[in-house]
Design a protein that fits this description.
Order of helices and strands of chain B: HEEEEHHH
Number of strands of chain B: 4
Shape of chain A: elongated
Largest sheet of chain A: 2 strands, antiparallel
Structural class of chain B: alpha+beta
Strand order of the largest sheet of chain B: 1-2-3-4
Strand order of the largest sheet of chain A: 1-2
Order of helices and strands of chain A: EEHHHHHHHHHHHHHHHHHHHHHH
Structural class of chain A: mainly alpha
Strand content of chain B: 5-15%
Strand content of chain A: under 5%
Largest sheet of chain B: 4 strands, antiparallel
Number of helices of chain B: 4
Oligomer: heterodimer
Distance between the termini of chain B: 34 Å
Radius of gyration of chain A: 35 Å
Helix content of chain A: 55-70%
Chain lengths: ~550, ~160
Amino acid sequence: MSPPRSNAHVIGNAPIATNDQHVCFICLQNDTDTPNRTWVNPCPCSLEAHNDCMLRWIAEMESSPQRMKEGLRCQACKSLITVEEPFDCVVAIQDAWLRRYSRWSPCLLGLFVSGGCFAASAAYGMAAFKIFAGPEVANMWFMRRPRLSAMFCKMWLLSTIAPGILVMRWMPSVGMTLLLPSSVMYCAHLVATDNFFEWPPSPQWAMALLPCLHVSYSHIFSDIFGPLDRRLTRALRGLPPDGSAEGREAALQDAAPEAAAPAPAPAAQQEPAANGPQNGWFAGGVSGLFGNISQWFIETFLDTAEMEVGIEVAVDERYGVRILANADILDSDDDDNDADNDDEDAPDIAGERRGGEIALETGYRMRQHPAVDPVPDQAAQQPANYQPPQAGQQQPAAQQNPPPPPQQPQEDGNQPRPNNNNENNNNNAAPPTSGPSLLALISNSIVTSLLFPLICYSMGELLRALLPRRLTTATVTSSLPWRAGRPIGLLQQQWGRSLVGGCLWVVLRDLLSLYVKYRRVQVRGKRRVKNVPRKQVRGSSGTGVVGSRSG
Amino acid sequence: MSAPFAAKRLGKELQKISNSLPPGIELVSADNFEEWLLDIRVLDDNPLYRNEIYRLRFRFSSTYPIEPPEVVFVKLPDRPIPIHPHIYSNGIICLDLLGHQGWSPVQNVESVCMSLQSMLTGNSKNERPPGDEEFVRGNRLRPRDIEFYYHDNDV
């Protein structure tokens, strides 16, 4: 509450004394009371005071910064009161210095902080680069032109990696809007400098093509799985899918046709993965934030996005928290955290043991209990139909597809780390029965995004372990991997493996999250509210039945 | 100069007050220069305050009038606490004039009384400040400090 401004501002009728006498408005003494004191007229109005009373009042005012905000003013007429004091060089210097220093210190502080952020970000970028492409390559790249300006430029590039990843994660449309045009321009630049595309692609081309790959992947994925995903989302939220139970059946059965049909599409997904061997990390990070021109991209994004938004908004009111609304269908990068958020065992037909998590955006996600195998018969069949396309898709497209399942759990060296982190986040943030808090979701998502280079590397290593040696071992060794001896395949270099691994990861993750969502819907269908045994109540027969059960 | 400073000024004020006071304000006691009691009543026909007399207690520090006096309503059998959105039921008054920021040596006992008088006259709300009960229950601070606290909150 605010104290009222007293509108009836009564100025005391100060002059007690008779006409031609001074009266100090502070101590109310007049000339005769204080014969030898100095009098001052601090302001144009009639107030007058003893000099020392006035100074005392001024000192009191000066001790409170709030009151000095408007300057030293007469309380009655609000005119400025000026204090004269002899010039003292030391005091003046100190004051001037203090004024100037107060003006500059926030800037300096900002400089320190931003410098710190820059350094941290660059360090992260370098670490990510080293993990992704291998330390030798990274060092070579960094040291190639040891001029200060070039080094700084590279530092700057590296420092954009982390923000880039996060932007792509949280604002994919903004990220892509920046990314696509510059990728097109970079392609043009490459062509203009006679650096034509050939197989296997150079890192430059990989970087240049990655955004396109990313967009087409999102597009294709949402084309194929978008409707299914929306239906699942609806079902999961208890909205009537298209009406009644039949609608749900229909929705689920769509899984089968869609699973069967998409053979071409998955191929397409993989194809880019194979020939545009780039990946969210490289593009989103190193080449930073670039943009998009193409109409088709906008359409892709907007129309699916709008539909999603419609649904989600409707649902919001019922379930409260929600983040990352439509992101999961549209953008593959967006699902980063979906896939490895949970480490419960999702009972899987394929024998996969992977933590799956969907519907981050639903905000109320259920957890599956490891012990219970909730797969009902129907569910068992459906997934059986549903599954093959995943496997089928990936195999034709790229030889590098290992059986998807084992990856996550089996990578002991590096992979466990993200998992552990996420697990911890989950555990800390929320009791096991409820979904994680918003904060936990955010931290999951950030951590997962930042660990993406590590994930790429792990996937790359996994590829190396699983694929035949001739595919993954360099035939020509050279000091400059991207210049000299031309490797025959993408997978022979670490960056290539990481890249393919990352792409593979994204695809698998998306599919898995979709699948888990599907299973969730299945479980949801079997849900039942548990009856609680009640104490026996005499009288009505209805309650008697319940009571007898409890007894 | 500290004790005599306030005393001199209060002496002058007392001298004037005992001669004449505006209608509706009466000096009850001014035995020393630390605590004075005054009665005020509202002059017009405001139904909230009709036929009531309120007791004000002024406490002066040794730095008065550089610092504001502490002014509260006192509750006695025949002296209730006026109901007002800025007056707590324990008598503490939330008025900028009485806080460090609003105070100035131009004010005096008489002017404070008149301000309070007009504050009551102008009020038509039959309510206490929000949070009155908790405040009254929990408050152990002196009015001056509370006032200061509110000002901080406002700014």
